[in-house]
Amino acid sequence: MSTNDSCQVSEMVVGRRTRAVRLENEFLRAVILADKGADIYELTYKPAGLDVLFKSPWGFRDLGSIGPSAADSQMAWIDHYPGGWQEIFPNFGAACVYQGVEWAFHGEVATASWDYRVLENTSRRASVRFEVRTTRTPFRLERTMTVEAGRPELLVQERLTNEGTVEMPYMWGHHPAYGAPFLSGDCRLDTPGQRYKVIIPQVSPDRTWMPDQGDWPWPNVVGRDGKTHDLSRIPGPESHLNTLGFVADLDEGWYGLTNTKLGFGVGIVWPKEIFPYLWLWQELNSTPGYPWYGRVYVMGVELHSSVPGAGLLKALEAGAARRIAAGASLEIEFRCLFYQSSRGVKRIRPDGAVEPA
């Protein structure tokens, strides 16, 4: 594919019947599952020929293909978790009941079918808009995704609208999960955070050095083993480790995850006033029980609006849930990009420019 005819939108089917959109230029290819949460299921850096996103061991399943799924919303969410990158809205973490309605685990939009429309499909620029209305809450969410020739980035523009006549609380995040062969012990994570905090007990405390709670200067954490661990250095698959916590007090909203051996990385840059927390989830061939059974090597580096990640009620109790007025809209823009580096990055600017380490 030459630079002059690099951009393209194409429609496809994933699985037996799931509508999907392939969006690409000469540097990257993204496959977005319109009928499954508008998940970014594939994110490939073409020069390396590698999809950086994790894939679950049970693979992709069309929504409804294994029904009836579980009554428990967390188990139902996991039943159809293919890996990749989900949008988490309007709830994050545990299901809860708010004003008489259950807000499901990780919200509504990641298990909904989204409508989409191709806005532009030229050799220089390709753009698709996805849209969904929630059913248990009065929200409309629009996401426009764009690639341009000559730029190794995916531009994401979102508009959140409260179509109801009352103010509404919400939690909002993006849940990209990275996997092998991109994810390895050669990876490092750079982000301008000041603190790392743990406020939720670890899933398998007997298989991690991570304490169940604490607050440390990023990236060095004193573990339950009494040792200091550098969270910017990613353990390899032989580590048999799981961790969960978040980076706070960000100077700016960006991170870069670099595989120093492969010589490239993936980064996201976002407005930190919308997503002030960066949740880090590592499941590195560790947890022996459901659903991983010690068989997955994955790391989530997730931008989020709120803490704790334990459902809306807990966020409301902590004063950390966001609110949007009746009839109001909120617009955001962020970028996901690839870059070449064998040392990591010093900074990713809001325009997507990468300053090497």
Question: What can you tell me about this protein's structure?
Answer:
The mean pLDDT is 94. Strands 9-10-11-12-26-22-21-15 form an eight-stranded antiparallel beta sheet, with no helix packed on it. A seven-stranded antiparallel beta sheet has the order 6-14-24-23-20-16-17, with no helix packed on it. Strands 1-2-3-4-5 form a five-stranded antiparallel beta sheet, with no helix packed on it. The chain contains two helices and 28 strands. It starts with 7 loop residues before the first strand and ends with a strand. The protein is mainly β.
For the largest beta-sheet, the strand count, sense and barrel status come to: 8 strands, antiparallel
Unreliably modeled segments: none
The mean pLDDT is 94
Number of strands: 28
What gap, in angstroms, lies between the N and C termini? Answer: 31 Å
- What does the radius of gyration come to? 19 Å
Helix-strand topology string: EEEEEHEEEEEEEEEEEEEEEEEEEHEEEE
Question: Helicity, in percent?
Answer: under 10%
**Principal-axes shape call:** globular
Q: Count every helix, treating DSSP H or I runs of 4 or more residues as helices.
A: 2
Strand content: over 45%
What structural category characterises the helix and strand content? mainly beta
SSE order and pairing:
Elements: E1 8-14, E2 18-24, E3 28-33, E4 39-45, E5 50-51, H1 73-79, E6 85-88, E7 96-98, E8 101-103, E9 115-121, E10 125-133, E11 139-148, E12 153-162, E13 168-170, E14 173-179, E15 187-190, E16 195-198, E17 214-217, E18 220-222, E19 228-230, E20 241-248, E21 254-259, E22 264-269, E23 277-284, E24 297-304, H2 312-317, E25 322-324, E26 329-340, E27 345-348, E28 354-356
Antiparallel strand pairs: 1-2, 2-3, 3-4, 4-5, 6-14, 7-8, 9-10, 10-11, 11-12, 12-26, 13-25, 14-24, 15-21, 16-17, 16-20, 18-19, 20-23, 21-22, 22-26, 23-24, 27-28
